# Entry
Amino acid sequence: MAREQSQLRERQRTNQKEPRRFKVIIYNDDFTTMEFVVQILVQVFLKPKSEAMALMLKVHHSGKAVVGIYSYDIAASKVNKATNMAREAGYPLRLTVEPYEPQEEGQL
# Structure
């Protein structure tokens, strides 16, 4: 008779969580041109031109818009790059990084 071997494998539980996500918000101002905002959205945030136009109009009409949700390092890097581009062009464009909560999804 063949001898059966059984092995018990224990699952180890880890308390690893998904990395925290952050949203990048762009704000409207009276000086930055619409064309420049679209340029930033295309070049820095890699948005297609049609989506960039829609986001720019949302910012123009409602005062601000979420342009993306990223890990903190990527969000901060994109904000710094966009802010530097704006300052070099002489615009006061403002972007911020804020914690993202998944229950906010319906509000975006």
Summary: Strands lie at 22-27, 64-70, 94-99. The two ends are 66 Å apart (CA to CA). The longest strand covers residues 64-70. The helical segments are 34-43, 49-62, 72-89.
